[in-house]
Design brief:
The complex is a heterodimer of chains A (401) and B (224). Helices cover 55% and strands 17% of the residues of chain A. Chain A is of the alpha+beta class and 401 residues long. Chain A folds into two domains: 180 residues, no CATH class; 172 residues, no CATH class. A six-stranded mixed barrel of chain A has the order 2-3-8-5-7-6. Chain B is an alpha/beta fold and 224 residues long. Chain B folds into two domains: 142 residues, 3-Layer(aba) Sandwich (Rossmann fold), CATH 3.40.50; 61 residues, no CATH class. Chain B starts with a strand and ends with a strand. The chains are: A alpha+beta (401), B alpha/beta (224).
Chain lengths: 401, 224
Amino acid sequence: MRSADLLRFALEGLRGHRLRAGLSLLGVAIGVASVIVLTSLGQGARDYVTGEFTSLGTNLLIVLPGKTTTTGMIPAIGGTTHDLTLADAEAIRRGVRAVRYLAPIGIGTAPVRLGSRRRDAMVFGTTWEMELVRRFHVAIGRYLPAGEAERAQSVCVLGAKIRTELFGAANPVGEMLRIGDERYRVIGVMAPRGQGLGFNFDEVVHIPIARNMKMFNRRSIFRMLVEVSSHDEMEAAKEAIVRLVKERHEGEEDITVLTQDALLSTFGKILDALTAALSGIAAISLSVAGILIMNVMLVSVSERTREIGLLKAVGAGSPQVLAVFLAEAALLSTAGGVAGLAAGIGAARLVSVAYPGFTASAPPWAVAAALGVSLSVGLLFGAFPARRAARLDPVSALSRR
Amino acid sequence: MIELEGLSRTYVVGDRPVHALRDVNLTFPDGDYVSVMGPSGSGKSTLLNILGCLDRPDSGSYRLDGREVARLSEAELTLLRRHRIGFVFQTFHLVPRLSALGNVELPMIFAGVEPERRADRAKKALDAVGLSPRSDHRPEQLSGGERQRVAMARAVVMGPSILLADEPTGNLDTASGAEIVKLLESMNAGGLTLVVVTHAPAIGGRARHRVRLVDGAVVDEARP
């Protein structure tokens, strides 16, 4: 029997019970579509997180006060014994050769006032280097001025949303406003950036770190971001920083240095687990679809018992009868797989359109797997009905009413 | 040449054995025209199924052209059915979703015949039974007589040497039944060995070689 004839004959067989075939095809399609949508969401989440970290700048070390043994997640409360000061930061910049940029961070919330308008805002204390480390974009004016971190000029750079709320469409550069109890001159406005990991940079006011620490009466910086010259020097730089700070802190190792890779791999593990769980759910829906196919094929075999008897009488061997029914099941499930694939990819596109910035796209392996799995579901669950057909005794099959 | 020797077939119905055939000894030379008659349950259909390699005897020997059929494998029996034997049934057994042409093509599909040659041969076979104008019709659009003619075209399209007909006129009116008998006889005249199982004496009586079965045993045989 030629394979083209086998497929055509199987297709004609399916046409004989369109509604039932269509329903079980729908079952497979839903199963495959859910695989595609769920893996697309997983992949989208992964791309989103990776993108967020990449926007932090590559080759990034995060130095925070306090020693914790937890790797990966940023410790919320550290047991600091020594303050991590601006002087420590300066020492790292001078003492560790691989450091390209170093940006200390201090944070706090303070009221920002312009005339009668008042708004509480996150006050983000840092230096000019933050613009380079975090790949910031300044829309109007400029970012914090270059110079010593200790220099405490009263200048500020506004987040896009803060600017709109306080100044509307007017150009705020050169205007004065109050942050806490002090007067600041606006020197720049950030380009809109949107929600990042952690907090929304559009609602932040950037001021020099020294000002920030005085404003909130802090001696220790919140953390610092260190960009290393090349990826190969990450480990060496990390060790050098820890050693240098230990010397300065009377032999006490009281800082934590995180690499971006460690953070990423932690997120990666979480996302892997999530994807595995979602795939498991999808696999269950596919096996339900498989049982649906088995049922449809069993009904088909019992309805076509006389036809099977006839096929044997005109010279179809048991292997050929088996092949015909397997081909029907495989066609059914593969057609369902293709339909589900199209629906799943469409749904993933819809998600991407509905949530800009979040791109849900099916990974290529999921597309291949969905088709492969739907074909195997057909063959696996079609095997039992097909064998039943192949084993029918032609004499009793022909005499069936 | 068909040779049956001491052929027996027993079914178990419930826990009681039913002797469908007992010690049947028959010989049909090539080109024979045989009718098998007898009351219901006399074993006529069982005999036909064994001749057609759809069923196997419990004991005795069935030699087809000198080859012992009982010793053949399932795959060899399939090949015999495909190439050597044609079947015509009382209820036609056409596949309802296929056209007349598609039904005639069916045996050739499983034999792996090329599509062009297949259509060609199927058309010729339909032509031979006078149905070429209706080759696109599906079985439900054909009369009983026409359906049986499609079935006959299908039975001979592979060029078999034996044609087995089980009550071929049982579901037909007298006129179309007579046409079918005429067609069968013309095929027999072309060299085909024809075995007809029938209730009707008017049809069975036309055969040169008449066999009468009662309770699975040959009670009467008339040979030319």
